[in-house]
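check these tokens.
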Amino acid sequence: MFRFSFSTLIGFCAGIGLLAFAVASATDNHVIFISLSSFGLVFGSTMAAALISYSTADVLHAMRSMLHTFFHPPTSQKHLKQVTRRFVEWSSIYRQGGIVALEQSLTKQENNDEFIRAGIDLMGAGYANHDIRTMLTDQMDATWQRHTLEGKVLNTMAVYSPGFGMVGTIVGLIIMLDNLNGDMAGLGKGLALALITTLYGVLLSNLFFKPAANQVTEKQETMYFRHQLISEGFVLLSEKRTALYIQDRLNAFIKPSVRDQALSGEL
């Protein structure tokens, strides 16, 4: 159902690649930019602060949604056109064979789609069209609220990580200043290591958490639009509207250049 997002992969690789190029072209001492303790301090503290701010389940769902940024939801104009075409097909199936025939016509992918499955179940329960609209709208709103919370968690983590990067830098500076009476030759190296935590904090914020939060929000906006189309489609099915009427009604959700006109001219 979800397609791999090559644009996200390209953007991520470009960000990491440009950083690696800047480091490689500026110094031969590449190892100094790698510090597991600094990364652990920034990432671990950010996670701890997120767990204080939100429930464990919300934080885990937010982290999982970061992995899902590499996949596109089924919300393209081409997909919406296919959904519209399916409702046109279902209109004839439902009027001729009822809810049983409609359920049997579902593909495996459609049967696993929780929103389509919810619409089928409501029609099978015999609810009126206005009740179906109300219940599907409530489900849309509830799904929106659940998933937008993931974006809020990621945005919060994006705010926290640079701050904890500065905390790590301050800790490193304190340790370095405490050793001033020792090896002065290592002062520059110690300062560089202290600043790595700030680098990690900024990178985590601007290359991971903020882009992931923006994409989670954008995905939910497009999914909400898709759910509106599906909700309207089930209402029209429950009213036993004609295939032409359903096509023309649902085409309002699609760009004019992409709209399905297979039934144009039919009455």
Summary: The mean pLDDT is 86. Strands lie at 3-4, 71-72. The CA atoms of residues 136 and 231 lie 6 Å apart. The first strand starts at residue 3 and ends at 4.
